[in-house]
Amino acid sequence: MKETPSDLQGLVFGLLATISNTLIGIFMLGAGILLEAVNNRMLGLIGGMGFILTGLFLFVVYSSIKEKELPTLRE
């Protein structure tokens, strides 16, 4: 929210909440369908690996943004 102008914060928050809640519903439906074909432990492993990979991806993106933002600290 620091980067978003104050007059657009409500819009951005609303869009993020809408997208998040929609994706949660879609993934819950998909998980229910996948449980018919995949063992529940395997599906849990796949989901856990997805969380780990997503976290690593976001960490790399955040690190690269911060690195570009503060280039004078190294000099």
Automatic annotation (TrEMBL):
Keyword Transmembrane: yes
Positions of transmembrane segments: 12-35, 42-65
Source species: Saccharococcus thermophilus
Protein's UniProt keywords contain Transmembrane: yes
UniProt keyword list: Membrane, Transmembrane, Transmembrane helix
Protein name: Multisubunit Na+/H+ antiporter MnhC subunit
Superkingdom of the organism of origin: Bacteria
